[in-house]
Amino acid sequence: MNAQTIIESGRAVLGIEFGSTRIKAVLIDEENKPIAQGSHTWENQLVDGLWTYSIQAIWEGLQDCYASLRQNVKEQYGIEITRLAAIGISAMMHGYMPFGEDNKILVPFRTWRNTNTGQAAEELSKLFNFNIPLRWSISHLYQAILNGESHVNSIKYLTTLAGYIHWQLTGKKVLGIGDASGMIPIDPETKQFDASMIEKFEKLIAPKHLSWHLTDILPKVLLAGEDAGTLTEEGAKLLDVSGHLQAGTPLCPPEGDAGTGMAATNAVKVRTGNVSAGTSSFSMIVLEKNLSKPYSVIDIVTTPAGLPVAMVHCNNCTSEINAWVNIFDEYAKILGIKQNTNELYTRLFNVALEGDADCGGLLSYNYVSGEPVAGLADGRPLFVRAANDKFTLANFMRTQLYAAVGVLKIGNDILFKDEKITVDRITGHGGYFTTKGVGQRILAAALNSPISVMETAGEGGAWGIALLASYCIHRQQGQSLPDFLDERVFAGNTGTEISPTPEDVAGFDAYIKAYKQGLEIEKAAVKYKAAK
Protein backbone atom coordinates (compact mmCIF):
# COMPACT_ATOMS: atom_id res chain seq x y z
CA MET A 1 0.00 0.00 0.00
CA ASN A 2 1.48 3.39 -0.97
CA ALA A 3 1.91 6.29 1.42
CA GLN A 4 -0.96 8.31 0.00
CA THR A 5 -3.42 5.46 0.50
CA ILE A 6 -2.12 4.82 4.03
CA ILE A 7 -2.65 8.46 5.01
CA GLU A 8 -6.07 8.70 3.34
CA SER A 9 -7.28 5.52 5.02
CA GLY A 10 -6.16 6.71 8.47
CA ARG A 11 -3.49 4.04 8.90
CA ALA A 12 -0.50 6.34 9.42
CA VAL A 13 1.01 6.80 12.90
CA LEU A 14 2.16 10.19 14.19
CA GLY A 15 5.02 10.86 16.58
CA ILE A 16 5.77 14.34 17.96
CA GLU A 17 8.75 15.20 20.15
CA PHE A 18 9.52 18.47 21.89
CA GLY A 19 13.30 18.86 21.82
CA SER A 20 15.32 21.69 23.29
CA THR A 21 15.55 23.68 20.07
CA ARG A 22 13.12 21.93 17.73
CA ILE A 23 9.69 20.35 17.85
CA LYS A 24 9.53 17.58 15.27
CA ALA A 25 6.67 15.51 13.86
CA VAL A 26 7.16 12.26 11.96
CA LEU A 27 4.41 10.34 10.17
CA ILE A 28 5.15 6.63 9.62
CA ASP A 29 3.50 3.89 7.58
CA GLU A 30 2.54 0.37 8.62
CA GLU A 31 6.13 -0.76 8.06
CA ASN A 32 7.25 1.95 10.52
CA LYS A 33 9.02 3.93 7.80
CA PRO A 34 8.80 7.76 7.78
CA ILE A 35 6.54 9.10 5.03
CA ALA A 36 6.20 12.77 6.06
CA GLN A 37 7.52 15.19 8.63
CA GLY A 38 7.16 18.67 10.03
CA SER A 39 9.07 20.85 12.46
CA HIS A 40 9.10 24.06 14.45
CA THR A 41 12.15 25.86 15.82
CA TRP A 42 12.01 27.28 19.32
CA GLU A 43 14.34 28.23 22.16
CA ASN A 44 14.17 28.38 25.92
CA GLN A 45 14.16 31.71 27.74
CA LEU A 46 15.95 32.73 30.93
CA VAL A 47 13.23 34.39 33.03
CA ASP A 48 13.90 35.52 36.60
CA GLY A 49 17.01 33.35 36.66
CA LEU A 50 15.24 30.16 35.51
CA TRP A 51 15.15 28.45 32.10
CA THR A 52 11.61 28.13 30.76
CA TYR A 53 9.30 27.83 27.77
CA SER A 54 5.98 29.65 28.04
CA ILE A 55 2.66 27.82 27.77
CA GLN A 56 1.92 29.99 24.73
CA ALA A 57 5.19 28.92 23.10
CA ILE A 58 4.37 25.25 23.78
CA TRP A 59 1.02 25.38 21.99
CA GLU A 60 2.10 27.68 19.19
CA GLY A 61 5.05 25.37 18.63
CA LEU A 62 2.92 22.23 18.56
CA GLN A 63 0.38 23.76 16.21
CA ASP A 64 3.01 25.16 13.85
CA CYS A 65 4.83 21.82 13.84
CA TYR A 66 1.62 19.98 12.94
CA ALA A 67 0.80 22.60 10.29
CA SER A 68 4.27 22.01 8.84
CA LEU A 69 3.51 18.28 8.71
CA ARG A 70 0.16 18.94 6.97
CA GLN A 71 1.94 21.10 4.40
CA ASN A 72 4.53 18.38 3.80
CA VAL A 73 1.75 15.82 3.24
CA LYS A 74 -0.02 18.17 0.82
CA GLU A 75 3.17 18.83 -1.14
CA GLN A 76 4.08 15.15 -1.40
CA TYR A 77 0.69 13.51 -1.79
CA GLY A 78 -1.84 16.27 -2.48
CA ILE A 79 -4.10 15.17 0.38
CA GLU A 80 -5.21 16.23 3.86
CA ILE A 81 -4.69 14.33 7.12
CA THR A 82 -8.11 13.56 8.60
CA ARG A 83 -7.56 10.35 10.58
CA LEU A 84 -4.61 8.65 12.24
CA ALA A 85 -4.03 5.12 13.53
CA ALA A 86 -2.14 6.24 16.65
CA ILE A 87 -0.33 9.23 18.12
CA GLY A 88 2.61 9.51 20.49
CA ILE A 89 3.81 12.59 22.39
CA SER A 90 7.34 12.90 23.72
CA ALA A 91 9.36 15.74 25.22
CA MET A 92 12.39 16.69 27.25
CA MET A 93 12.33 14.77 30.52
CA HIS A 94 12.28 16.07 34.08
CA GLY A 95 11.52 19.63 35.07
CA TYR A 96 8.60 21.09 36.98
CA MET A 97 5.05 21.76 35.79
CA PRO A 98 2.65 22.19 38.76
CA PHE A 99 -1.03 22.91 38.10
CA GLY A 100 -3.75 24.32 40.34
CA GLU A 101 -7.49 23.92 40.82
CA ASP A 102 -8.29 25.60 37.49
CA ASN A 103 -5.82 23.40 35.56
CA LYS A 104 -3.61 26.46 34.99
CA ILE A 105 0.12 26.27 35.57
CA LEU A 106 1.10 27.84 38.90
CA VAL A 107 4.63 28.97 37.98
CA PRO A 108 6.44 29.08 34.62
CA PHE A 109 7.62 25.67 33.43
CA ARG A 110 11.04 24.97 34.96
CA THR A 111 13.04 22.86 32.53
CA TRP A 112 15.69 20.20 33.01
CA ARG A 113 18.33 22.84 32.39
CA ASN A 114 17.87 24.59 35.74
CA THR A 115 20.43 23.89 38.45
CA ASN A 116 18.88 25.79 41.36
CA THR A 117 17.80 22.63 43.20
CA GLY A 118 21.10 21.69 44.83
CA GLN A 119 19.92 21.64 48.44
CA ALA A 120 16.82 19.60 47.62
CA ALA A 121 18.67 17.07 45.47
CA GLU A 122 21.35 16.55 48.12
CA GLU A 123 18.88 16.05 50.96
CA LEU A 124 16.66 13.70 48.97
CA SER A 125 19.60 11.63 47.74
CA LYS A 126 20.60 11.03 51.37
CA LEU A 127 17.03 10.37 52.47
CA PHE A 128 16.38 7.81 49.71
CA ASN A 129 19.94 6.42 49.48
CA PHE A 130 19.45 6.91 45.77
CA ASN A 131 20.89 9.53 43.44
CA ILE A 132 18.29 12.24 42.90
CA PRO A 133 19.56 14.63 40.19
CA LEU A 134 19.05 18.39 40.20
CA ARG A 135 16.70 18.28 37.21
CA TRP A 136 14.25 15.64 38.51
CA SER A 137 10.70 16.81 39.28
CA ILE A 138 10.93 15.75 42.94
CA SER A 139 14.02 17.96 43.36
CA HIS A 140 12.16 20.95 41.91
CA LEU A 141 9.14 20.27 44.11
CA TYR A 142 11.12 19.93 47.32
CA GLN A 143 13.26 22.98 46.50
CA ALA A 144 10.07 25.01 46.05
CA ILE A 145 8.95 23.74 49.47
CA LEU A 146 12.31 24.64 51.04
CA ASN A 147 12.10 28.09 49.46
CA GLY A 148 8.66 28.62 50.95
CA GLU A 149 7.13 29.38 47.56
CA SER A 150 3.49 30.34 47.98
CA HIS A 151 2.18 28.28 45.06
CA VAL A 152 3.16 24.93 46.59
CA ASN A 153 0.07 24.55 48.78
CA SER A 154 -2.17 25.02 45.71
CA ILE A 155 -0.75 22.13 43.65
CA LYS A 156 -3.37 19.72 42.32
CA TYR A 157 -1.28 18.02 39.63
CA LEU A 158 2.42 17.69 38.87
CA THR A 159 3.71 16.37 35.56
CA THR A 160 6.33 16.71 32.82
CA LEU A 161 6.09 18.51 29.49
CA ALA A 162 5.08 15.33 27.62
CA GLY A 163 2.58 14.47 30.34
CA TYR A 164 1.07 17.96 30.16
CA ILE A 165 0.55 17.90 26.39
CA HIS A 166 -0.87 14.36 26.51
CA TRP A 167 -3.27 15.42 29.29
CA GLN A 168 -4.56 18.32 27.23
CA LEU A 169 -5.03 16.14 24.13
CA THR A 170 -6.72 13.21 25.90
CA GLY A 171 -7.90 14.35 29.32
CA LYS A 172 -5.79 11.55 30.86
CA LYS A 173 -3.29 12.25 33.67
CA VAL A 174 -0.85 9.47 32.78
CA LEU A 175 2.86 9.14 32.03
CA GLY A 176 5.06 6.52 30.40
CA ILE A 177 7.33 4.79 32.90
CA GLY A 178 10.52 6.08 31.29
CA ASP A 179 9.44 9.71 31.68
CA ALA A 180 7.99 8.96 35.13
CA SER A 181 11.37 7.60 36.25
CA GLY A 182 12.73 11.14 35.80
CA MET A 183 10.18 12.51 38.25
CA ILE A 184 10.60 10.12 41.19
CA PRO A 185 12.42 6.75 41.39
CA ILE A 186 10.57 3.70 40.10
CA ASP A 187 10.29 0.43 42.04
CA PRO A 188 11.70 -2.21 39.64
CA GLU A 189 9.31 -4.84 41.04
CA THR A 190 6.01 -2.94 40.97
CA LYS A 191 6.88 -0.75 37.93
CA GLN A 192 5.33 2.18 39.81
CA PHE A 193 6.69 5.13 41.78
CA ASP A 194 8.68 3.75 44.72
CA ALA A 195 6.19 3.58 47.61
CA SER A 196 8.85 3.53 50.33
CA MET A 197 10.44 6.71 49.00
CA ILE A 198 7.07 8.41 48.71
CA GLU A 199 6.42 7.50 52.36
CA LYS A 200 9.78 8.97 53.39
CA PHE A 201 9.03 12.14 51.45
CA GLU A 202 5.59 12.47 53.09
CA LYS A 203 7.17 12.22 56.55
CA LEU A 204 9.83 14.78 55.54
CA ILE A 205 7.28 17.41 54.51
CA ALA A 206 4.64 16.57 57.13
CA PRO A 207 5.60 19.59 59.32
CA LYS A 208 4.65 21.87 56.39
CA HIS A 209 0.97 20.76 56.66
CA LEU A 210 0.44 20.99 52.90
CA SER A 211 -2.99 20.46 51.39
CA TRP A 212 -1.97 17.46 49.28
CA HIS A 213 -0.33 14.04 49.43
CA LEU A 214 2.31 13.20 46.84
CA THR A 215 0.40 10.20 45.47
CA ASP A 216 -2.62 12.45 44.80
CA ILE A 217 -0.78 14.92 42.56
CA LEU A 218 1.29 12.51 40.44
CA PRO A 219 0.33 11.00 37.05
CA LYS A 220 -0.53 7.33 36.70
CA VAL A 221 2.48 5.32 35.51
CA LEU A 222 2.01 3.23 32.34
CA LEU A 223 4.22 0.74 30.50
CA ALA A 224 4.77 0.79 26.74
CA GLY A 225 1.75 -0.62 24.94
CA GLU A 226 -0.79 0.17 27.67
CA ASP A 227 -3.96 2.16 27.03
CA ALA A 228 -3.28 5.89 27.53
CA GLY A 229 -6.53 7.35 26.21
CA THR A 230 -7.74 8.78 22.90
CA LEU A 231 -7.68 12.15 21.20
CA THR A 232 -10.67 14.20 22.34
CA GLU A 233 -12.60 16.72 20.25
CA GLU A 234 -10.88 19.51 22.20
CA GLY A 235 -7.50 17.81 21.77
CA ALA A 236 -7.96 17.47 18.02
CA LYS A 237 -8.64 21.21 17.76
CA LEU A 238 -5.60 21.98 19.89
CA LEU A 239 -3.37 19.90 17.63
CA ASP A 240 -4.86 20.78 14.24
CA VAL A 241 -6.20 24.34 14.23
CA SER A 242 -7.40 23.82 10.64
CA GLY A 243 -10.07 21.47 11.97
CA HIS A 244 -9.41 18.58 9.55
CA LEU A 245 -8.16 16.04 12.12
CA GLN A 246 -10.85 13.87 13.65
CA ALA A 247 -11.03 12.83 17.31
CA GLY A 248 -10.83 9.24 18.54
CA THR A 249 -7.22 8.34 17.72
CA PRO A 250 -5.55 6.24 20.46
CA LEU A 251 -2.41 7.69 22.07
CA CYS A 252 0.45 5.68 23.54
CA PRO A 253 1.81 6.56 26.99
CA PRO A 254 3.69 9.89 26.72
CA GLU A 255 7.43 9.39 27.02
CA GLY A 256 10.59 11.36 27.64
CA ASP A 257 13.33 11.89 25.10
CA ALA A 258 15.47 9.23 26.76
CA GLY A 259 12.85 6.55 26.18
CA THR A 260 12.27 7.56 22.58
CA GLY A 261 16.01 7.55 21.96
CA MET A 262 16.16 3.98 23.23
CA ALA A 263 13.31 2.96 20.93
CA ALA A 264 14.81 4.77 17.92
CA THR A 265 18.13 2.96 18.36
CA ASN A 266 16.69 -0.45 19.33
CA ALA A 267 18.45 -0.19 22.69
CA VAL A 268 15.76 -1.50 25.06
CA LYS A 269 17.28 -4.91 25.81
CA VAL A 270 19.66 -5.76 28.64
CA ARG A 271 23.32 -5.10 27.66
CA THR A 272 22.41 -2.59 24.96
CA GLY A 273 22.90 1.14 25.14
CA ASN A 274 22.61 4.35 23.21
CA VAL A 275 24.03 7.84 23.22
CA SER A 276 21.88 10.79 22.27
CA ALA A 277 23.95 13.83 21.38
CA GLY A 278 22.35 17.12 20.43
CA THR A 279 21.77 20.27 22.48
CA SER A 280 22.33 18.09 25.54
CA SER A 281 23.73 14.58 25.60
CA PHE A 282 23.03 11.46 27.55
CA SER A 283 23.98 7.81 27.48
CA MET A 284 21.61 5.00 28.43
CA ILE A 285 22.89 1.53 29.35
CA VAL A 286 20.25 -1.13 30.09
CA LEU A 287 21.54 -2.92 33.18
CA GLU A 288 21.72 -6.64 33.81
CA LYS A 289 22.67 -6.09 37.47
CA ASN A 290 22.32 -3.31 40.02
CA LEU A 291 25.21 -0.90 40.55
CA SER A 292 27.24 -1.48 43.72
CA LYS A 293 26.27 1.91 45.14
CA PRO A 294 24.62 5.22 44.16
CA TYR A 295 26.71 7.68 42.13
CA SER A 296 25.94 11.37 41.96
CA VAL A 297 26.69 11.46 38.22
CA ILE A 298 24.65 8.38 37.27
CA ASP A 299 20.85 8.37 37.24
CA ILE A 300 18.82 5.18 37.41
CA VAL A 301 15.81 5.47 35.10
CA THR A 302 13.94 2.89 33.00
CA THR A 303 13.23 1.78 29.48
CA PRO A 304 9.67 2.39 28.19
CA ALA A 305 9.00 -1.21 29.27
CA GLY A 306 10.34 -0.67 32.79
CA LEU A 307 13.85 -2.22 32.75
CA PRO A 308 16.46 -0.34 34.86
CA VAL A 309 18.85 1.90 32.95
CA ALA A 310 22.03 3.71 33.99
CA MET A 311 21.86 7.21 32.57
CA VAL A 312 24.65 9.76 32.35
CA HIS A 313 23.08 13.11 31.50
CA CYS A 314 25.06 16.16 30.40
CA ASN A 315 23.39 19.57 30.11
CA ASN A 316 25.66 20.71 27.28
CA CYS A 317 26.71 19.13 24.01
CA THR A 318 26.56 20.76 20.55
CA SER A 319 25.48 24.34 21.34
CA GLU A 320 29.06 25.63 21.46
CA ILE A 321 29.94 23.81 18.22
CA ASN A 322 26.96 25.54 16.60
CA ALA A 323 28.18 28.91 17.89
CA TRP A 324 31.62 28.43 16.32
CA VAL A 325 30.19 27.20 13.02
CA ASN A 326 28.13 30.40 12.93
CA ILE A 327 31.36 32.41 13.35
CA PHE A 328 32.94 30.56 10.42
CA ASP A 329 29.78 31.17 8.41
CA GLU A 330 30.00 34.91 9.14
CA TYR A 331 33.64 34.90 8.01
CA ALA A 332 32.68 33.17 4.75
CA LYS A 333 30.04 35.83 4.12
CA ILE A 334 32.59 38.61 4.69
CA LEU A 335 34.69 37.01 1.95
CA GLY A 336 31.65 36.88 -0.31
CA ILE A 337 31.49 33.08 -0.22
CA LYS A 338 28.03 31.52 -0.28
CA GLN A 339 28.31 28.49 1.95
CA ASN A 340 25.62 25.85 2.49
CA THR A 341 25.32 25.42 6.26
CA ASN A 342 25.18 21.62 6.13
CA GLU A 343 28.25 21.55 3.90
CA LEU A 344 30.07 23.86 6.32
CA TYR A 345 29.35 21.50 9.22
CA THR A 346 30.51 18.54 7.15
CA ARG A 347 33.80 20.19 6.16
CA LEU A 348 34.58 21.39 9.70
CA PHE A 349 33.72 18.01 11.26
CA ASN A 350 35.87 16.16 8.75
CA VAL A 351 38.85 18.46 9.22
CA ALA A 352 38.76 17.55 12.93
CA LEU A 353 39.85 14.03 12.03
CA GLU A 354 43.10 15.51 10.68
CA GLY A 355 43.96 16.90 14.11
CA ASP A 356 46.22 15.36 16.74
CA ALA A 357 44.64 12.62 18.85
CA ASP A 358 45.14 14.74 22.00
CA CYS A 359 44.06 17.96 20.20
CA GLY A 360 47.60 19.30 20.33
CA GLY A 361 47.14 20.48 23.92
CA LEU A 362 44.11 22.66 23.22
CA LEU A 363 41.19 22.64 25.65
CA SER A 364 37.55 23.59 25.26
CA TYR A 365 34.61 23.73 27.68
CA ASN A 366 31.15 23.84 26.13
CA TYR A 367 29.24 24.90 29.26
CA VAL A 368 26.52 27.20 27.97
CA SER A 369 24.70 26.37 31.21
CA GLY A 370 25.67 24.60 34.42
CA GLU A 371 27.05 21.07 34.22
CA PRO A 372 26.21 18.95 37.30
CA VAL A 373 28.47 16.02 36.33
CA ALA A 374 31.41 18.44 36.42
CA GLY A 375 30.16 20.00 39.68
CA LEU A 376 29.23 23.37 38.15
CA ALA A 377 25.89 25.09 38.81
CA ASP A 378 26.65 27.66 36.11
CA GLY A 379 28.81 27.64 33.01
CA ARG A 380 30.84 29.79 30.62
CA PRO A 381 31.86 28.53 27.18
CA LEU A 382 35.65 28.60 27.18
CA PHE A 383 38.56 27.87 24.84
CA VAL A 384 42.07 27.63 26.35
CA ARG A 385 45.52 27.13 24.88
CA ALA A 386 49.12 27.64 25.86
CA ALA A 387 51.42 29.59 23.57
CA ASN A 388 53.29 26.48 22.41
CA ASP A 389 50.23 24.27 21.85
CA LYS A 390 49.51 23.16 18.28
CA PHE A 391 46.90 25.75 17.36
CA THR A 392 45.51 24.57 14.01
CA LEU A 393 41.99 24.52 12.62
CA ALA A 394 42.00 20.71 12.76
CA ASN A 395 42.99 20.68 16.44
CA PHE A 396 40.55 23.49 17.24
CA MET A 397 37.61 21.60 15.72
CA ARG A 398 38.74 18.36 17.30
CA THR A 399 38.75 19.90 20.78
CA GLN A 400 35.24 21.24 20.17
CA LEU A 401 34.06 17.73 19.28
CA TYR A 402 35.93 16.22 22.25
CA ALA A 403 34.42 18.78 24.60
CA ALA A 404 30.92 17.90 23.40
CA VAL A 405 31.32 14.38 24.84
CA GLY A 406 33.96 15.03 27.50
CA VAL A 407 31.56 15.09 30.43
CA LEU A 408 29.80 12.03 29.02
CA LYS A 409 33.13 10.18 29.17
CA ILE A 410 33.67 11.15 32.81
CA GLY A 411 30.35 9.57 33.80
CA ASN A 412 30.71 6.47 31.66
CA ASP A 413 34.22 5.76 32.93
CA ILE A 414 32.54 4.95 36.24
CA LEU A 415 30.25 2.42 34.59
CA PHE A 416 32.85 0.72 32.43
CA LYS A 417 35.99 1.01 34.55
CA ASP A 418 34.66 0.95 38.13
CA GLU A 419 31.42 -1.01 37.86
CA LYS A 420 32.68 -3.29 35.06
CA ILE A 421 29.40 -2.94 33.17
CA THR A 422 29.32 -4.95 29.92
CA VAL A 423 27.44 -3.95 26.79
CA ASP A 424 26.96 -5.79 23.53
CA ARG A 425 26.08 -2.73 21.43
CA ILE A 426 26.03 1.06 21.84
CA THR A 427 24.18 3.06 19.20
CA GLY A 428 24.55 6.78 18.62
CA HIS A 429 21.91 9.20 17.37
CA GLY A 430 21.36 12.93 17.22
CA GLY A 431 22.93 15.89 15.45
CA TYR A 432 26.46 15.08 16.67
CA PHE A 433 26.44 12.03 14.36
CA THR A 434 25.04 13.73 11.24
CA THR A 435 28.44 13.95 9.51
CA LYS A 436 29.15 10.35 8.63
CA GLY A 437 31.81 8.65 10.73
CA VAL A 438 33.16 11.70 12.59
CA GLY A 439 31.20 11.96 15.82
CA GLN A 440 30.95 8.18 15.79
CA ARG A 441 34.74 7.76 15.72
CA ILE A 442 35.28 10.34 18.47
CA LEU A 443 32.66 8.82 20.77
CA ALA A 444 34.20 5.37 20.19
CA ALA A 445 37.52 6.79 21.42
CA ALA A 446 35.87 8.50 24.39
CA LEU A 447 34.06 5.35 25.60
CA ASN A 448 36.69 2.92 24.29
CA SER A 449 33.84 0.94 22.80
CA PRO A 450 32.50 0.22 19.30
CA ILE A 451 29.74 2.65 18.34
CA SER A 452 27.00 1.89 15.82
CA VAL A 453 24.98 4.46 13.92
CA MET A 454 21.91 3.56 11.89
CA GLU A 455 20.67 5.28 8.76
CA THR A 456 17.61 6.25 10.81
CA ALA A 457 19.78 8.08 13.38
CA GLY A 458 18.70 11.44 12.01
CA GLU A 459 15.01 10.63 12.55
CA GLY A 460 15.56 10.89 16.30
CA GLY A 461 13.00 10.92 19.07
CA ALA A 462 9.97 11.85 16.98
CA TRP A 463 10.43 8.57 15.11
CA GLY A 464 11.06 6.81 18.43
CA ILE A 465 7.74 7.93 19.92
CA ALA A 466 6.01 7.05 16.64
CA LEU A 467 7.40 3.52 17.06
CA LEU A 468 6.02 3.35 20.60
CA ALA A 469 2.64 4.47 19.27
CA SER A 470 2.89 1.83 16.52
CA TYR A 471 3.67 -0.79 19.18
CA CYS A 472 0.34 -0.01 20.86
CA ILE A 473 -1.64 -1.01 17.77
CA HIS A 474 0.59 -3.33 15.72
CA ARG A 475 2.16 -5.66 18.28
CA GLN A 476 1.21 -9.31 18.22
CA GLN A 477 -0.52 -10.88 21.23
CA GLY A 478 1.95 -10.92 24.12
CA GLN A 479 4.79 -9.48 22.00
CA SER A 480 7.33 -7.57 24.11
CA LEU A 481 8.67 -4.18 23.09
CA PRO A 482 12.19 -5.57 22.42
CA ASP A 483 10.76 -8.31 20.21
CA PHE A 484 8.51 -5.84 18.37
CA LEU A 485 11.49 -3.60 17.60
CA ASP A 486 13.71 -6.55 16.64
CA GLU A 487 11.18 -8.30 14.43
CA ARG A 488 8.95 -5.59 12.99
CA VAL A 489 11.08 -2.43 12.92
CA PHE A 490 14.79 -3.21 12.65
CA ALA A 491 14.73 -6.81 11.36
CA GLY A 492 18.35 -7.47 12.29
CA ASN A 493 19.72 -4.09 11.20
CA THR A 494 22.30 -2.95 13.76
CA GLY A 495 23.72 -0.10 11.68
CA THR A 496 27.30 0.68 10.75
CA GLU A 497 29.86 0.11 13.48
CA ILE A 498 33.17 1.92 14.12
CA SER A 499 35.65 0.53 16.65
CA PRO A 500 38.12 2.76 18.51
CA THR A 501 41.77 2.80 17.53
CA PRO A 502 44.45 2.57 20.24
CA GLU A 503 45.83 5.95 19.12
CA ASP A 504 42.43 7.69 19.42
CA VAL A 505 41.74 6.13 22.83
CA ALA A 506 45.15 7.18 24.17
CA GLY A 507 44.67 10.68 22.74
CA PHE A 508 41.25 11.12 24.30
CA ASP A 509 42.52 9.80 27.65
CA ALA A 510 45.33 12.40 27.56
CA TYR A 511 42.82 15.09 26.64
CA ILE A 512 40.39 14.19 29.43
CA LYS A 513 43.18 14.21 32.01
CA ALA A 514 44.05 17.80 31.03
CA TYR A 515 40.32 18.58 30.80
CA LYS A 516 39.73 17.55 34.42
CA GLN A 517 42.70 19.58 35.62
CA GLY A 518 41.47 22.57 33.63
CA LEU A 519 38.07 22.59 35.32
CA GLU A 520 39.58 25.05 37.79
CA ILE A 521 39.91 27.49 34.87
CA GLU A 522 36.23 27.01 34.06
CA LYS A 523 35.29 27.61 37.71
CA ALA A 524 37.28 30.84 37.67
CA ALA A 525 35.51 31.93 34.49
CA VAL A 526 32.14 31.38 36.15
CA LYS A 527 33.27 33.34 39.18
CA TYR A 528 34.78 36.32 37.39
CA LYS A 529 32.86 36.54 34.10
CA ALA A 530 29.36 37.75 34.89
CA ALA A 531 26.43 36.48 32.82
CA LYS A 532 24.06 39.09 31.44
From TrEMBL:
Molecular-function annotations in GO: kinase activity
Could you say which residues form the signal peptide? none
Q: Where in this chain does the record put each Carbohydrate kinase FGGY N-terminal domain?
A: 13-239
Keyword terms, alphabetized: Kinase, Transferase
Fetch the InterPro entries from UniProt: ATPase_NBD, FGGY_C, FGGY_Carb_Kinase, FGGY_N
Superkingdom classification of source: Bacteria
Q: Carbohydrate kinase FGGY C-terminal domain: which residues? A: 274-471
Family per record:
Belongs to the FGGY kinase family.
Protein's recorded name: FGGY-family carbohydrate kinase
Question: What organism does the record attribute this protein to?
Answer: Hallella mizrahii
Per the UniProt record, the lineage of the source organism begins with:
Bacteria, Pseudomonadati, Bacteroidota, Bacteroidia, Bacteroidales
